[in-house]
Amino acid sequence: MNNLIIGPIIIPIIIGLVLVVCRNSLGLHRFLSLLATVLIGLAAVLLLEQIRTGGMQILNLGGWEAPLGITLVADMFAVLLVLVTALIAFCCLWYACSSIGMGRERHYFYPLCLFLIAGVNGSFLTGDIFNLFVCFEVMLVASYVLISLGGTKIQLRESIKYVLINMISSFLFLVALAYLYAITGTLNLAHLSIRVAQSGQGGLMTVVALLFLTVFSLKAALFLFYWLPGSYSAPPTAIAAIFAALLTKVGVYAIVRLFSLVFYHDLGATHLFIGALAAASMVLGAMGAVAYDDIKKIITYNVVISIGFILAGFASFSLVGMRGMVYYLLHDMIVKALLFLSGGTVIHLTGTAKIREVSGLIRLHPQLGWMFFIAALSVSGIPPLSGFIGKVFITTGVFQSAYYWLGGIGLFTSLMVLYSVMKIFMNVFWGHTNLTEETEKGTTQGLLPPIVVLTALTIALGLGAEGIHEYVDLAVEGLLNPNLYTDAVLAQNGK
Amino acid sequence: MSIVVGILFAIGTYLILSKTLLRIILGTSIIGHGVNLLILTMGGLKKGGPPIIGLNTQYFTDPLPQALILTAIVINFATTALLLVLSYRAYAVVGTDNVEQLRGLEDE
Known about the structure:
Largest sheet of chain B: none
Strand order of the largest sheet of chain A: 1-2
Oligomer: heterodimer
Radius of gyration of chain A: 21 Å
Distance between the termini of chain B: 49 Å
Order of helices and strands of chain B: HHH
Shape of chain A: globular
């Protein structure tokens, strides 16, 4: 029992509720929401140390023991993601303070973000699959409001599609849950893992597994990503960055958790399928990223590519591949936030997202230009930045598992990624300067510090990869040995 | 029961595939009910006493599906309400409730 685990979920909810009550003091809103993310970060750091020394941490909510009540499980993988979530949320909220505008701030932007973070953290930490559904919904309902907040024409148009897609995938989630409950009679993840291992993963179980895969693919934008480019380019930059960095990754987390803990008995059916979907989303995402000349569209298609790449590492299901997956997931959350924030700043400055209408921005904004350059290198996996190590491990793992086609597609699409982000850099920042300080639509005032922090993070994660090696290894060990998880959850009551 | 679920899903799917926003929302609502019934059916409809310790009945009903459905109903209710408001706003601002015209143009 460890009460600290509830922290990352309850802190943002409590502070969010306080903020709803004090509507009119925006200074308080800004301060308290940043404070909330700092507190979550601290809780995550404490948890990391406890897990490193004492193994997985468990909290049985309400004192109900494991298979009966709702369990919160903090293993290394989940807590690493919670920590990165806190870092990104901090940077995005900081960016939002000076970019989101009074109107949105007054209409509960910060509380909504905090509720979203609570849902994200809840999804990471829960050990119960129905609770996962509930946390997904907490996160999604907050995101429905955030995506339509402000009510511009394009937002309303895109948010309807976004809400509909997600509602339908929630229904499918419930359907899959109903079947799973009918077959196994339990909803606790650890208990599910044991029951499925005992009864064997027959054809029926694989069908249920694929139904879950469909649901999470919709959320993670794995192959079923057609909703993503439209809806992620509708809301303002800070919100889009939070979405791109966090929401899809929660879907990825759910896939990884479920297919490493419960449905790992029929690798040929499920994991090969995940690999095929990953390859398809990498190829289609690369086509989108290369084809468009709109900053927002290019970087949203990059989200799709990276989801494919992360899950390619997972599909290999080897030690090295999984290690790469964890590294790359952490890297990708940071660097996607960085790309969205710096790309959004360019749009804010120039008033257009078309890369052909802007050029020579580096003369006016050298810091922004070079930070975008670092982000571009990092996203395509150039050493010594953070994308490199994950990419190496994933590629090695995929080749080791003899998915040569998947590895080949992965490497080919990273070239496309490089091309697509360099296209933005060269068009927007190089060339003849066609803007003056007077004709700019906005200033970078207050926008650069969060971008600097994220850039520093991606450099630090690249250079300090050795430092987090121990944590990543523990995370991978937990993912590859489901009995560690089930023992930790069910040990207390001797089952 | 399973047949009813099937019919509800069929109706819901048909409505979602139509072009008017209101029909789509009704469709999601109906599918939501279908899902709830499915959970109840899948949980196994058993006869038995209430699941309270100390009550002298031999068989207990499984209380879990009802708890799940309660949660699902609440969530479904909230999202449907939100979607209704959203579609009304969209109708007021964009000026159409036909999803074909919600596509959006390339240059805006």
